[in-house]
Design a protein that fits this description.
With 433 residues, the protein is α/β, with parallel strands linked by helices. The protein contains 21 helices and 5 strands. The protein has helices spanning 17-20, 33-36, 41-48, 64-75, 89-104, 121-125, 128-132, 146-149, 152-155, 168-182, 190-199, 204-216, 225-231, 244-258, 262-274, 279-294, 300-315, 321-333, 339-353, 369-373, 413-431, and strands at residues 54-57, 78-83, 109-114, 136-142, 159-162. Strands 2-3-4-1-5 form a 5-stranded parallel β-sheet, with helices on both faces. Helix 5 (89-104) links the parallel strand 2 (78-83) and strand 3 (109-114). Helix 10 (168-182) packs parallel to helix 12 and helix 15 runs antiparallel to helix 18.
């Protein structure tokens, strides 16, 4: 397999495989053709010979650093790279001063800032004058959602370009290139090769590091999936509990439950728990789903969630996680209604608008003689004294018409609730006729 143009002209043999395989042209970057291709944002900018500042947002190992370096080469800019993890204000001042000196000599600078979200708000503001006057073309790289992590002022001056996780085709291309530069194939069965690709979880750098390990060992025969698993450490799922991935997964779990898809709900539950999410956090979110999306269509949904919480407290992990699974599947397979949730929002809104209205005198408390003399509680109809156990009295403040916040569906237990409400309404009309 002869593809010399793909690699550095004279790579050091001791360099990691991922560095030796770093592309030398934008068109050789795999998996990001939606950006680097002729119709992509980067492809169009390179064709025009002009770059705007940009934020490259994507998972680890998808080519952000490589693209930034190749962009500088493609349009003839000086390349300067810093990492927000290791750099501070003093480092930024040196970079900007150097960029100004080079600009005065006619050489513009592409400043690549890795992990740009690590800079605080004040440091991010420090980029603005240099980006605005063209001292630097900023290319920031981040694995976090820029909307949450970057200043609005900085975002308004840069395009946000999204890099995709590398799919199986792109990862297989990387393995083929690795085999080309090594001059031999990986010691894997076809099934193990597929397992290796799947284990990378879209991260090209991780895949190449695993491939490098495989090239370094002496094997009598190709490894099958079990042998591969025994040799290589399992990749830990990318999951930051206080970052966007956390909220994406809990959103997916909640919406899968709402959409009555127990299989998908169980998958996202597994994703969270196997990645180390706090089980009690998951239980809190399941309980919220029970009251928001099931409600009185199945009142047992809330009971199941609280029972799952008690079971987890009693059993601990991993045994107690089975109770969480039961609660999740119960919610996903339960009849759905958000009428309770909608009723709460409507009632809260109404209370804010009419919060000073006095309840009718017949239903207010009269703990003192004076209050009784003033008419507090006078004329109250005790419902249990009626034949139907229902007085049909008016409980709304004077000047406020009766409201209908809660309107049950005809699904699950709510169908019986709706019948009960209709029965009471019929009695109310008869008593007030």
């Amino acid at each position: 397999m002869d593809m010399p143009y793909l690699f550095a002209p004279d790579p050091a043999e001791s360099a990691p495989l991922a560095d030796r395989l770093r592309p030398q042209r934008l068109e050789d970057v795999v998996g990001q053709e939606h950006l680097t291709g002729p119709e992509g944002a980067i492809g169009r900018m390179v064709a025009a010979g002009r770059l705007s500042s940009m934020i490259l947002w994507g998972p680890p190992g998808t080519g952000k650093t490589t693209i930034a370096r190749l962009l500088a080469d493609a349009v003839g800019l000086r390349f300067e790279a810093i990492s927000a993890v290791f750099s501070g204000v003093a480092d930024l001042r040196k970079v900007f001063a150097s960029a100004r000196d080079h600009a005065a000599a006619g050489q513009r600078t592409l400043l690549f800032v890795d992990e740009i979200h690590r800079f605080n708000r004040a440091q991010q503001d420090g980029f603005l004058p240099y980006v605005e006057d063209g001292t630097v073309t900023l290319v920031g790289a981040t694995t976090e959602n820029p909307s949450f992590e970057l200043n609005a002022a900085l975002l308004s001056r840069a395009q946000v370009l999204i890099l995709h996780r590398l799919d199986a085709k792109a990862l297989c291309t990387l393995l083929e290139r690795a085999e080309g530069i090594e001059g031999r194939t990986l010691p894997l069965t076809p099934e193990a090769r597929d397992a290796l690709v799947a284990s990378a979880d879209g991260d090209g750098r991780f895949l190449l590091n695993q491939a490098e390990t495989l090239f370094s060992v002496q094997l009598d025969q190709p490894l099958d999936p079990a042998g591969l698993s025994a040799l290589l450490h399992r990749r830990v799922a990318v999951y930051d509990k206080d970052r966007e991935g956390h909220y994406n997964l809990i959103s997916a779990l909640h919406k899968s439950i709402r959409g009555s898809d127990p299989q998908a709900a169980l998958y996202y539950l597994a994703r969270m728990l196997t990645a180390g999410e706090e089980p009690l956090y998951v239980l809190r979110r399941l309980t919220r789903a029970a009251v928001e999306d099931v409600g009185l269509a199945d009142p047992q949904a809330l009971v199941q969630c609280i029972a799952a919480k008690d079971s987890y407290d009693f059993l601990g992990s991993p045994e107690g996680e089975l109770a969480i699974v039961q609660a999740c599947l119960y919610l996903a397979t339960a009849p759905k209604s958000n009428r309770l949730y909608m009723a709460q929002k409507a009632a809260w809104r109404s209370a804010k608008e009419t919060g000073s209205l006095m309840p009718p005198m017949n239903i207010v408390n009269a703990p003192t003689r004076l209050m009784k003399q003033l008419g507090y509680g006078k004329g109250y109809a005790y419902d249990h004294d009626t034949d139907e156990g229902f007085s049909g009295d008016d409980y709304w403040p004077e000047g406020m018409a009766p409201q209908a916040y809660y309107e049950p569906t005809d699904r699950g237990f709510e169908k019986r609730v709706a019948e009960r409400l209709a029965y009471w309404e019929e009695l109310r009309r008869g008593k007030n006729a």
